[in-house]
Amino acid sequence: MTATLLSIGHGYSAAALVRRLSGWRIIGTTRRVEKAERLRRGGIEALLWPGDDLRPAIEAASHILISVAPDDGGDPVLRALNQAIGDAAPHLRWVGYLSTTGVYGDHAGGWVDETTPLTPSTHRGKIRVLAESQWRALAARTGLPLHIFRLAGIYGPGRGPFEKVKNGTARRIIRENQFFSRIHVDDIAAVLAASIARPDPGAVYNVADNDPAPPEDVLTEAARLLDLPQPPEVAFEDAEMTPLARSFYAESKRVRNDRIRRELGVELAYPDYRAGLRALLAAEG
Question: What is the mean pLDDT of residues 121-138?
């Protein structure tokens, strides 16, 4: 029987996973007609959702990946499809929910792992915790083979810092003891593929690289690789930022990734931002 992945909210990380799934049937959802057409040209069976009836796709799937962001009510996928997904639990081999390390909240630059209590301070983090709890409840009730992946800040092709450094809009925003964790999209795909190959229902994985770092260090390295002047420094208190951008600085933590290496055997292709930036620059020319 052909393995079938239903990718709900088929986006950047899901697309990287699909590139690793040779011979699979892929069904992907999107909100936009033009993106659906683009997915079909790439060999993906595209559905518009919300809109199309996903129940036949859920029934056909052996694996489901959810990449849809939560809203104030939690997970919109479950709000619409709770019954259908629960009914499909007996024949599903793997379900992956893409969450975020924002669920841990602020730890003043300290380390967190998958056992750390979830104490988010931002609205984004709080609704992620709510969505995770809804998926856990469904899994407890139905036996759904749920796996939760808490992703650090995602970068990769088309999502690197080089353009801002080149066009002069980059600013190194300085805030004492500010640490972010990151992950290259190809390493996300490697973790998801490893989990699919080695399912462990109920497992939670932090998906982050080995080297959490202040955000200004990444811009410093990008400028060095481009042989351009360092972007100017701006104190956090004086920086002009959108409320969303400023909210990212409300929490500082370093995310441990031991579990993906120990339990899934994943060796990151880009273990730190330096390796990732070098690869991006080589790919972008």
Answer: 97
Helix pair 273-284, 215-226: axis angle to 10 deg: 40
3-state helix, strand, coil in the chain (%, to 5): 40, 20, 40
Q: So where are the chain's domains?
A: 4-156+183-210+254-270
- Do residues 144 and 206 lie in contact, with contact meaning Cβ atoms separated by under 8 Å? no
Give the amino acid at 272. D
Looking at residue 133, what is its pLDDT?
98
Lowest mean pLDDT among 132-146, 230-244, 265-279: 230-244
- DSSP letters, 175-230, are -TT--B-EEEHHHHHHHHHHHHHS--TT-EEEE--S--B-HHHHHHHHHHHHT-PP
Q: Which CATH superfamily is domain 4-156+183-210+254-270 in?
A: NAD(P)-binding Rossmann-like Domain (3.40.50.720)
Count the alpha carbons within 13 Å of 33 in the hemisphere toward its beta carbon: 0
- Give residue-wise pLDDT tens across range 221-265: 999 999 999 999 999 999 988 888 888 898 999 999 999 999 999
Closest CA to 104 of 180, 156, 184: 180
* Euclidean distance between CA atoms 5 and 98, whole angstroms: 15
Q: Tell me: the pLDDT tens digits for 78-96?
A: 999 999 999 999 999 999 9
